[in-house]
Design brief:
This protein has about 575 residues and is of the alpha/beta class. It has 8 helices and 47 strands. β2 and β3 form a beta hairpin.
């Protein structure tokens, strides 16, 4: 360094690329005046090559991945520069240094340290360690379990009614378009295929991977059915209509009531089909294991059918159910399916949260699994606790129904188990949970209860009626209300809902679709239409204030509209409408 003469400018050092400059032991990051070169220090970086690896076991512990990372080293040299009053100091790359291959013995040693004893793929290890490129390869595999094959019942006979064949000259009665199937003595009705047990596997740590026990789904013979060939074939002993419900195959016969159902006749309770030629009067009850065919009207009465319900004329007040054990059963079944999915999402969130806390070294990362479950139930999954309250109330009602519970020991076991397990997800109950595994176990338990409930309903049981007013209707299948007016009703359909006349006031739900003529009136109480996820609502005329709900999306009609179909836009999740012809 040469000092300036007189009032000349002093030297200035500017930090450039790939260097670190220090003057009087302080880092220089901006142009700096130098008055003594002895205090100027220039450091040229030297980046060493790096070779590293990591072992990651899969969530199910059936495989281990080797993740390799290679980074090249870099050597820099200070660039020469002529004398200058403002000197930019920089360095240039002069050499790259390749990383060393990873010794496969180090990977094998790490496998041994972690207790991994599965099927080790030595060729994959050697290749991943020597290629000097970042890779993620499976190097250890376990033995996957072979899942069991559930026992099943194959129905040979036809259970559904079929259309009556008519010619163009015949007069068609739209209330009698379908004819019931029937079988003769000796006809084969069903075949039972026994379950096949699964085979346990082994994970990469040598532990056994268990498999669930196969479901039996036994074939049970009811009235008019005989089991032969060691219980594998069901044959008809009497002629009639085959019915398969709750795992029991039976032959249904019909009772005919040729007058009004009133105080004179008493309530009608029959396990087969019921045909009523007159009316059903107030406060009377009809309970049928099969079809209820009412040729006239029903006034403030109750009709419970194991299969279809047909009401020829008016339905005023009362409750009508088809294909279900009790009102609200389909809603509970749908909620059990959603709750099962929520528990699986909750398990994933709990695992991620605990791992994240462990990486951050937070103090509560060492807390039990129940703490994280309770925390997420309160913050992100509050609706899950509400669903468990409904499940517990539902199972409590089932337990109180001793007649229902005594018919099926397996169903009784599942109901008591779900009722007891639900308590662990309410209040302080989650704190008693020791492992996240209980979430998967509970999801499977809820799935068992849902299967029992679904098997107890006739999925194709329908309701057809004319004029309807102030009534409650629920069917596991479709519902058709073909009268000129549907007023202030509560309707729940497991499939399609058809509203043939003017629909005013009330709540109307269908799992798949609602097709209506005129909905709402604008000046009366609110009217609600709702369908399940993926469903649609179609109306020829729809008035303002009508509420439309599809899945979780909801909107209220603001103006009178004609020939509109409402669906959910898959991209936005909002309800959209389009005109149909």
């Amino acid at each position: 360094m040469e000092n300036p003469q007189g009032y000349g400018a002093w030297p200035v050092v500017i930090p450039g690329e790939n260097v670190e400059l220090y003057y009087r032991h302080e880092r220089i990051e901006v142009p700096t005046v130098i008055d003594d070169a002895r205090h100027l220090q220039v450091i040229v970086p030297m980046i060493k090559p790096e070779s590293s690896f990591e072992l990651v076991a899969a969530h199910d512990k059936l495989e281990v991945k080797l993740i390799t990372r290679f980074r090249k080293g870099e050597k820099y040299q200070l660039c020469d520069a002529p004398p200058a009053q403002k000197l930019t100091v920089k360095a240039q790359l002069v050499e790259t240094i390749d990383p060393e291959p990873i010794a496969p013995v180090l990977v094998l040693q790490e496998l041994e340290n972690q207790g991994i004893v599965g099927n080790i793929l030595y060729e994959q290890i050697a290749q991943a360690c020597s290629t000097l490129t970042d890779q993620e390869v499976v190097i250890v595999t376990g033995t996957a379990p072979r899942q069991p094959v559930d026992g099943r019942v194959e129905i040979i006979c036809e259970l559904e009614s079929h259309p009556v064949s008519v010619s163009d000259q015949d007069r068609i009665d739209y209330r009698e378009q379908r004819q019931l199937n029937s079988v003769e003595i000796g006809d084969v009705l069903a075949v039972w295929h026994p379950p096949i047990p699964g085979v346990p596997g082994r994970d990469v740590y040598g532990a056994e991977v268990p498999v669930r026990a196969p479901r039996k789904q036994e074939l049970l013979a009811g009235r008019g059915v005989k089991l032969i060939n060691n219980g594998r074939i069901a044959a008809a002993q009497i002629p009639g209509r085959p019915v398969y419900r709750s795992g029991v195959l039976s032959i249904s016969q019909q009772v005919v009531v040729e007058q009004d159902v009133s105080i004179r006749t008493g309530n009608i309770r029959f396990k087969g089909d019921v045909l009523i030629l007159g009316n059903v009067h107030e406060s009377m009850e009809i309970e049928a294991g099969g079809i209820v065919d009412l040729k006239s009207s029903c006034y403030h009465a109750r009709i419970d059918a194991g299969s279809h319900v047909r009401i020829g004329r008016k339905l005023i007040g009362g409750i009508v159910t088809a294909g279900i054990m009790q009102p609200g059963l389909m809603r509970i079944s749908a909620m059990l399916g959603k709750l099962r999915e929520e528990l699986l999402l909750l398990e994933t969130a709990c695992v991620q949260m605990k791992e994240h806390c462990a990486q951050l070294g937070q103090e509560f990362a060492v807390r039990g699994d129940g703490y994280f479950i309770k925390l997420l139930l309160e913050r992100r999954f509050s609706h899950t606790s509400n669903h468990f309250k409904e499940v517990r109330a539902f199972t409590a009602d089932l337990i109180a129904n001793q007649e229902l519970m005594s018919n099926n020991e397996e169903f009784k076991r599942v109901v008591y188990a779900v009722n007891d397990r639900s308590k662990r997800f309410l209040g302080l109950g989650p704190l008693s949970i020791c492992s996240f595994d209980i979430l998967t176990q509970t999801a499977d338990l809820l799935d068992e209860l849902k299967n029992h409930i679904d098997s107890s309903v006739d999925s194709n049981a329908t309701i057809t009626a004319g004029y309807c007013q102030n009534a409650y209707l629920e069917a596991s299948g479709s519902i058709e209300m073909r009268g000129p007016l549907i007023y202030s009703c509560t309707v729940s359909s497991g499939a399609e809902l058809v509203l043939g006349g003017e629909c005013r006031c009330g709540s109307y739900y269908a799992k798949s679709s609602i097709t209506a003529q005129t909905v709402g009136s604008g000046s009366m109480a609110e009217t609600k239409l709702a369908v399940g996820d993926g469903g649609y609502i179609r109306a020829a005329v729809i008035h303002p204030t009508v509420e439309i709900k599809i899945g979780s999306a909801k909107t209220v009609i603001q103006t009178k509209q004609y020939n509109q179909e409402f669906r959910v836009d898959p991209e936005t999740g909002l309800i959209i409408s389009r005109r149909f012809s």
